[in-house]
Amino acid sequence: MQDAFFAVPIIVETEITGEFRALSSASEAAIFMMERWPESRGPRFQAALQACTGLLSIAEHVENARRAFLTAAKEAGLNVKSVCKGRCSIAPLS
């Protein structure tokens, strides 16, 4: 099974202030949620985790998983950078 890559990666701050992680796929987002998510896990957390680990056979499902992650991240108060709507470019993290 191939990984479901996001059209635009999500760049999110980890639990270490100033440290950011680029999430390029639904599986990377799910792993981040299971391993590095803050203790506060609201109702959108479970929906996002299900979306990122569910059926991702078409681009629409992948984009829905990305949106669900962003919604859960906002609910949890995570710092997300370089979230683009439409066309944009993201500089690689050094």
UniProtKB/TrEMBL annotation:
- What protein am I looking at? DUF982 domain-containing protein
Q: Which source organism?
A: Mesorhizobium neociceri
